[in-house]
Amino acid sequence: RALVVSLFFKSFLAISRKLCGAGIMPPDAVPKAELSGADVFHTPALRSAQLFERVASDQPSHDPIGKPKVHAAALKQATGEAIYTDDIPRMDGELYLALVLSTKAHAKITKLDASEALALDGVEGFFSAKDLTQHENEVGPVFHDEYVFANDEVHCYGQIIGAIAAANQALAQRAARLVRVEYEELQPVIVTIEQAIEHASYFPDYPRYVTKGDVVQAFAEAAHVYEGSCRMGGQEHFYLETHVALAVPRDRDELELFCSTQHPTEVQKLVAHVVGLPANRVVCRAKRLGGGFGGKESRGMMVALPVALAAYRLQRPVRCMLDRDEDMLITGTRHPFLFKYKVAFTQEGLITACEIECYNNAGWSMDLSFSVLDRAMYHFENCYRIPNVRVGGWVCKTNLPSNTAFRGFGGPQGMFAGEHIIRDVARIVGRSELDVMQLNFYKTGDYTHYHQQLERFPIERCFQDCLKQSRYFEKQAEIERFNRENRWRKRGIALVPTKYGIAFGVMHLNQAGALINIYSDGSVLLSHGGVEIGQGLNTKMLQCAARALDIPIELIHISETATDKVPNTSPTAASVGSDLNGMAVIDACEKLNKRLAPIKEALPEGTWQEWINKAYFDRVSLSATGFHAMPDIGYHPETNPNARTYSYYTNGVGVSVVEIDCLTGDHQVLSTDIVMDIGSSINPAIDIGQIEGAF
Questions:
Q1: For residue 399, what are the contacts with CB-CB under 8 A and spacing of at least 6?
Q2: pTM across the whole model
Q3: What whole-number distance in Å separates Cα of residue 134 and Cα of residue 471?
Q4: Residue 369 has pLDDT above 90, yes or no
Q5: What tens digit of pLDDT does each residue of 562-573 get?
Q6: What is the DSSP string of 184-242?
Q7: Which fold has domain 86-186+244-330?
Q8: What pLDDT was estimated at residue 637?
C-alpha cells in the first residue's frame, strides 16, 4: 500500500515538474528539494580503471609471471566454441535421467509407485532407495548423513526420492511427474534459525567455543557495554551452467564420468561407494565448469550419483543436466547466519572485549556447515584487535536443502558481524566509523583469538590508499550537500576493510599433485589437481610451468582435470587453488630440469626441441609427477600449538557510494573503489577479474 501511494506521489511530482516547466504552474509550486523525487534510475555509462604492479624490466620477454596474460580459453568462451559437459555430443543408446523430488518439507513416505511412469514407451528404468543397500545409499562429503535417494522419510522440499531413465529429456521429465508419492506429514517443520533455537535443533557436539583472555573481568571494568545482534540471509550461487553429469560404462566393471564439479576426487570416491567398485575403476573428468562459487564443491554428488548408478545398472550412457528451477530448489545456498554479541569498549571507542554467539542454518544435513561455522568464528573480528574474546558456534539443523560452500565460506558472514560491532561502538561514543576502525586495527605482530601471529599486516596502508583513491572526504562532503538539497533521494558512503585467511580449515586438504608429460616434438602436456571453473587457474598453471621450464607458454597445454592423471585431489576452493597446484607444477618441472641439465650443458646453443629430441634418444624419462603440501599449518590448541591456522592473509578495503530512492526503495551503486593486497600477482588481469567478479 505504501508503495502504491509513493508511486502515485512520484507521478504527481513528475507531472508538477512538467507543468512548472511549461509555465502552467508557478515555478515555486513544488519545493525544490522535493522535485528530484520524480527521478528514476538509469544505467549510467560505465567507467572503470585497473591499477597493478608492473614486472621488473630485466625479466626475460618469454617469462609470463606477473604479466596480465589473457585467460587461456577466453576466445573460445567468447565465441561459444568452448566445450562444457553438456556440449559433449549424444552417444548411441544414451539415456536421460530425470529426478523425482519431494514436495514436503518433513514427512514419511507412505507410498512410492512408478508403475504408470514405467508403462510409457521409451522409459527404461526407475531407481529409488530400494535399489541400494542401506550402506550404499548413505553418502556425504565428510559425514555420511545424506542419502542418494530418500529412505522412508524426507527432510526437506526438493529432496531426491527417485530417478527415471528414459530415451530423452522431455520423456524422462514427463515420466518423473507420473511417479506417485504419498506422504504422512511430520512435525515440527523447522525453517529459520530462530525456530531451530526454539526447538534446540542443533547438530551433535555443538556449541563449540573459542576463548582468549578474560571476558568477564573486561566487561566488569569497561566504560561501556553494548549488546546487539545482526543477521545475514542466504544467497543463490547462480552459476551459469547448472549441475550436470554424464556417465559412460567402459566395460562391465568400469565407469567414466564427465561431471561439472569442483571436486572430481570426491565424485569418484562416492560413485565407487554407491556402485560397489574400487576407485581405480571409476574415472571422473572435468574439462571446465561454467562457474561454481562453492556450489559445486560438494553438491555435485546429487546429480552424479543417480546418473552413475543408472549407467552402471543399465550399462548404457546416461546424462542429466538440471533445469535452473530444479538446481535452485535442490542444491542449497550460502549459509544464513544469526549473531548475538556483547561488546565492551572505552570512552574513546577502543574495544576491550567481545562475547559473540554465531548460529548458522545448515539445512537438513551437515555437508560442510561445521567448517563454514569455524571460518565465521575465526573471521568475526575482521581486521580489529579484541584482547578478550569468547566465541560460541552452533550448527542449526533445519528442514531446508542442505546449505553449502559459497565464496568466502563463512568469512563474509563473520566479518559482517565485526563491521556491525564497529559501527555500534562508533555510534555510542560519537566518533566517526573511520576513527574507530583505525583505533582498533590489528598491527603487525598482534595475535588473533585463535593464537595466530600476524606476521605482516598491511591493512593501514590499504585503508589510506583506498581513502586517497576514492577521494573519500571529498565525496562525503558532496553527499552531505546532496542529502540537504534532496528530500526523497539520499546518498551514503561506506568503507569496509577485510582480512581473509588462506588455507583449507581441514588439514589434509592442503595438498596438491601435478603430472607433466613432454612429447618428442617438444610440446608439453600439463595436468594438475585443480579445476578450471572460469577463474583462470589453468592460465596461471601454464604461466608457472613456462617460467619453471624456461620455455614459451605456447608450447604448453592443459587438457582437463581427471582422477586418472592426478589422484586424491583436493577440491578447487578456499582461494588456494593456484597456491597448492602451482607449487606441485613447479616441483614436477624441477625434476625434469634436473634430468635435462646434462643435455643442456652438452648442447649450450641448442633449442628446447633439440634438447628434448636428444633426451628421448638418450632414453631420459620425459614425464614427472609433482607434489606439494602446505607447510607449517594445522593449528590445534592441544596437539599442535605451534602451527598456524592459515598460511597467510589477504587484505582489502572497499569504498562504495550508493543512492536510494526513499519513495520506492530502488537503489543504485554510483561508484566503488577497491584496494586489495594479494602479494605479487601471478597474473594481474586474472586477479583483477576475480576481484571485480567477486564484487
A1: 105, 106, 155, 156, 157, 189, 190, 191, 364
A2: 0.96
A3: 63
A4: yes
A5: 999 999 999 999
A6: EE-S----SHHHHHHTT-B-TT--EEEEES-HHHHHHH-SEEEEEEEEE-------SS-
A7: Aldehyde Oxidoreductase; domain 3 (3.90.1170)
A8: 84
